[in-house]
Amino acid sequence: MPRNLLIAAITGALTCATPSSATAQAVDRAHTIVIVVGALASQPIPTLVHDRWNQDAADLLFLRLARLGPTMMTAGDKGFEPQLAKSWSRRDSLTLIFNLDPRARWHDGQPVTAKDVVFTFGLFRDPKIDPQHALLLRSVASVNAEGEHRVIIRFTHYYPEQLYDATYQVQPLPAHLVDTIPPNLLGSSDFARHPIGNGPFVWDSLAPAEKLTLDASPNYFLGAPAIQRVIFLKASDPDVQVNMLLSGTADAIENVAPVSNIPRFASMPNLRIVQVPSFTIGYLLFNQRDRKDRSKPHPILSDSLVRRALLLGLDRPAMLRSALGAMGAVPYGPVPLISWIRDPDSPPARYDTTQARALLASRGWTDHDGDSVVDRDGKPLELELNVPTTSAVRMQLALETQQFLSHIGVRIILRTSDGPTWNSRRNQHDFDIDASSSGLDPSPSGLMQSWSCLGLDGINVGAACDPRVDSLMERAIAAKGNPRPLWFAAIRRIEEDAPAAFMYSLTNAFVVHRRFEHVNIRPDGWWAALGEWTVNEKR
Amino acid sequence: MTRWLVRRIAQALVTLLIVSVLLFFIIRLTPGDPLSRLTGDRPISPAAVAQLKHLYGLDQPLLVQFSAWVRALAHGDLGVSIAQGRDVTTLLAERLPASLLLGGVVLLLNFTVGLAFGVWQAKRHNQLPDRVLGAISLTAYATPSFLLGLLLAGLLSVHWHIFPPCCLRDPLATDDGSLAGALDVLHHLVLPVATLSIVSMAATMRQQRGAMIEALKLDCVRTARAKGLTSGAVTWHAWRNALFPVLTLFGLWLPLLVTGSVFVESVFAWPGLGLLAYDAISGRDYPVLMGTSLLVALVVVLGGFLTDLAYATLDPRVRYR
Amino acid sequence: MRLTAHGVLRDLWQRPKGRAGLVVLAVIVLLSLAGPAFVQDPAAIPDLEHGRFLAPGAAHFFGTDYVGRDVLARVIWGSRISLGVSALSVLLAMTAGTAVGLVAGYLGGWADAAIMRFVDAALAVPRLFLLLLLVAVWEHIPLVALIIVIGATGWFGTARMVRGEVLRLREQDYVRAAEALGGRRRRIIFHHLLPNTLGPVVVTATLAIGDVILVEAGLSFLGLGVQPPTASWGSMIQDAKSTLFTAPWTGAFPGLAIVLTVLAVNLVGEALQDSLTHSPA
User: Fold this and answer.
1) Which of A214, A211, A174 is nearest to A191 (CA)?
2) Of B22, B151, B245, which is closest to C165 when you measure between CB atoms?
3) What DSSP letter does each residue of C119-158 carry, written as one string?
């Protein structure tokens, strides 16, 4: 009886968990890459994407008109590489013309046409369907087709990132397959379950609890990939991910966490560590408004000199090395190291407890009662730090912050909670200091929402609002000439105002099996260039 | 007996009903934002958040959400996952087999090997083998299960490459239902089962040992021994008396069938319901949380019922007066 | 043997198991009471640059952790939280569970049905949800309340266990005889039923001690209860999870502390069980 039960359970497990569309034919191990990911793409359709995992899969299936070059330069028309569009030109300062590559095909064999592009822009620009993209594309006035392979995009006004907006934000969908599906039913459609794209890889099958399998598109017009099959394997626990790589089950992992594992990988002869700069920055955000009543200033943190003192009281380079090793650097303002608006001549403020104490004292914060915590009007300088326990790096930085600030007489109380609770507290402005992390877009224009008066009702939860910063950023975003100096000036003002202590600009550590060569992991879409890697079977 | 059965089943159904209502409100009232997973660390516009809220009905008053949920449930619809955009019933069906397999094998091991060890220990009460086995099982139990899992994975799969460190099957395997496929699943099953069995077996062994020691002292057992019954027959006689706590334990552990163990499923990336529930709680995916909790509640209540049924069958004198 | 604290203790001391367990427990408790006076500040980060992940040595007997804190200091300080929370909440849970189980099993009928369906319902609502809810309503929860909450959500299984035992014992000849002879309810419950149900309770309690130490760490993770940098054995182990192979000492010592405690409690528990069922020493 027990044996029957066991067999029944096993057959049950095999038959029920089998994806119905598994049509796997044999592909040799060397040309298959198994990538461990924290979550699987469930609907990698560009209009439905809200998370990184879906975006990563969508990037392999759906091309953009053009992609960013290695400099990640988003302003101007020069820094881009052809994808669906083989070339582009300007009719005037408001009009871009894209010439589609006539070789481009959907995975069902149909040609990719201007009609597809016009149709998809229609979806993305409809605020009822996709409010996020509609907002990003608000400067696009019209999108029209001229014949089969030419697309004309007109803008409402001139700005340096027109080409970026026209290419980065939109991944064309096959109009002939999607235009019959009502947009609100797209997510539950057959197309979402089995997407037909135009990229280097073709959808094979999804076993939602286990893995997503994509196969190389043999007729891919930019050259068939050397990697025959991509398997995204799901494992959310970082320790399992490490085990999977070390035991040879997987060929690549996305983030080595914690960094103390890097030496373990470095000692393995068949593994390669790949450092990829990222658009993620981490910072301790100061709440400049009263926690209970947003109309009032924060009793302590509305004072820019106090904020500056806190910043100076942190040995940020040492903290960074302890939590991230070599995988990052202290940023100047909310600017990732890889961004083109990073000012190479402005170093972040140095750790200086003497000056920090002096600044505090100048605002009346001194230790009157000898309890080694500074106070003013009988109240100690005590602040609550909101930290997600789900982020090991930020937890560690929070502990160290507490220690460092205690040396300048500031008492930090940690308020830890898991991700979702931490996030609600942050969104409800229920914190003095928040251990934040933001994954930014390659374009700096998004900074406007986070650090200007415009974002006060939205994502600018710390309520940093300086009209001069606003005006500098507005001018930078619409600059006719070189926008860099204007951005530098805006960032300098932000840094001086200290709305946050900017702690790290993250460099991601990937680990990849050495048989893969020409490994190119893109900062703006990690696996998007997988089709260009090569395989050395001898390794 | 029939009257008792009818009454007992009715009670179970009412309990389940109350629990499901409770669960709905408890889950909705837990702090945390179900959209935080979707929006993540990426700055997203308030309009986009509002649209997502509307899409999942999260902008409605709680009571409206509740009545919508009840109406859907009446049609067997558990809603759509916020994180994955897929039907919860489909998700549960996908995950159930893996958990049944893991939990089933572990329960089976516990209630065969675990019980046998317990009885064996009781018969050698306070002798060396009893003490050694007791110390080993207790040490294993006191070790946190996720550490034990990581230790086993680190040694047996990373270091010696004997067993795979994760997953239900080889990522490159094609699911053809062949014997090789079944063996592959068995191979992957070893470490999770070992971890979960090691930590749970201690409890089974100790309960069985304790109950058996008591039972061996009972008058009826002494009488049996005095009558000159064989050692095996005496053991059998005593064992029937020592089954009560073990049966209760079985009832309490029945949910292992549908949840495996969250820790163990997580440490071995075992694609079962425990991991689904864990992901759902980390993302506050309300519909999935509700679905998994209901399933667990069902099995918990079933466990209570089966335990009572077993008492009644085992000792006809335990009548329901 | 008299059923007084002194009497029980003396009886335990006369049993080898009891004596061994008591000695180990006494040492652990003594360390947690007096130890903190002799070790470093458990939250201090003396050297962020070079003091992290130091292997055990003369300066740090148990090594240092991921930010450079002394593991020995944290094990000793952590014992206060871990022992306090686990001992008190398990005591609470076992008392409640035994009482409820006894009453339900002995009374039977509708009272039994009502109580046990409540227990079923309570078991069916995952403890995690109840505790998460608590974060929402009670932000800065004091330690005492935390102990009560862990205790109050930990007795359901014990109640089922005890009730099962009572159902069986109630039909044993000696209990029937006592009832037939007109024995008072209280006497039957306390002299016949209670001592004989203690077996499974002691086992459950022993195992629960180790569980609660980890539950406490799980709660810290959710933001309930003890907040960092306060040390507890459970949170130390959780922190050490990812460095099990690169810096084993960070997890090994708190792990050992838990195992030792559980083993000692188990020895005492077994001796107590022998003592109450009048087995010869």
Assistant:
1) A174
2) B245
3) HHHHHHS-HHHHHHHHHHH-SS--HHHHHHHHHHTS-HHH
* Contact call for A42 and B85, based on CB within 8 A: yes
Chain A residues 301-360 within an 8 A CB cutoff of chain B: none
Residues in chain A within 8 Å Cβ distance of B100: 9, 12-13
pLDDT of chain B along its 321 residues, tens only? 788 889 889 999 999 999 999 999 988 888 888 887 666 556 677 777 888 888 888 888 899 999 999 999 888 899 888 888 889 999 999 999 999 999 999 999 999 999 999 999 988 887 888 888 888 888 887 787 878 888 999 999 998 999 999 999 998 877 667 888 889 999 999 999 999 998 888 889 988 988 898 888 877 777 877 887 788 888 888 888 888 888 898 999 998 888 777 888 988 999 999 999 988 988 889 999 999 999 999 999 999 999 989 888 887 776 554
- Burial of A457: CB neighbours in 10 Å, binned 0-12, 13-18, 19+: exposed
Q: What angle do CA A197, A199, A203 make, to 5 degrees?
A: 55
Smallest CA-to-CA distance from A235 within C202, B164, B198, C271 is with B164
Q: Do A243 and B153 touch (CB under 8 A)?
A: yes
pTM: 0.91
Query: How far is it, in rounded angstroms, from Cα A375 to Cα A378?
Result: 6
Residue B193 near residue B109 (C-beta atoms within 8 A): yes
Residues 6+ apart with CB under 8 A from B255: B296, B299, B300, B303
State the ipTM, two decimals: 0.90
Q: Which residues pair with A384 in a beta bridge?
A: A413
Closest in A131, A192, A240 to B51, CB measured: A131
How many CB contacts within 8 angstroms connect chain A with chain B?
204
Question: Which residue among C45, C228, C247 sits closest to A414, beta carbon to beta carbon?
Answer: C228
Within 35-94 of B, beta carbons closer than 8 Å to C belong to none
Q: Which amino acid is at A397?
A: L
For testing contact with chain B, the best of C24, C158, C161 (most B CBs within 10 A): C161
End-to-end CA distance of chain B: 11
CA atoms within 13 A on the CB side of B117: 22
What is the spatial distance between Cα A39 and Cα A51, in angstroms, rounded to a whole number? 10
Answer whether B165 sits within 8 Å of A249, measured CB to CB: yes
- If one counts every other C-beta atom within 10 angstroms of the C-beta of residue C184, the result is 10
Smallest CA–CA distance, residue A164 to chain C, in Å, is 40
In angstroms, the CA A209 to CA B167 distance is 10
B34 three-state secondary structure: coil
Put simply, whether A318 touches C (Cβ < 8 Å) is: yes
Flag if A399 and C247 touch (Cβ within 8 Å): no
Strand-strand pairing, A229-234 and A379-380: unpaired
User: A372: distance to nearest CA of chain B, Å?
Assistant: 35
Residue B61 token pair = 């008053």
Positive or negative, the Cα torsion across A355, A360, A365, A369? Answer: negative
Cβ atoms A133, A169 nearer than 8 A? yes
DSSP C150-176: HHHTS-HHHHHHHHHHHHHHHTSHHHH
Chains in contact with A, where contact means 3 or more Cβ–Cβ distances below 8 Å, are B, C
Alpha helices, H only, C181-241: 185-187, 194-222, 233-240
Amino acid at A45: I
Q: Measured between CA atoms, how close is A189 to chain B, in angstroms?
A: 11
* Residue reference for tokens 């057992």: B221
Residue closest to A490 by CA, chosen among A442, A526, A433, A444: A444
Three-state SS at A536: coil
**What is the DSSP secondary structure assignment for residue B44, as one 8-state letter?**
-
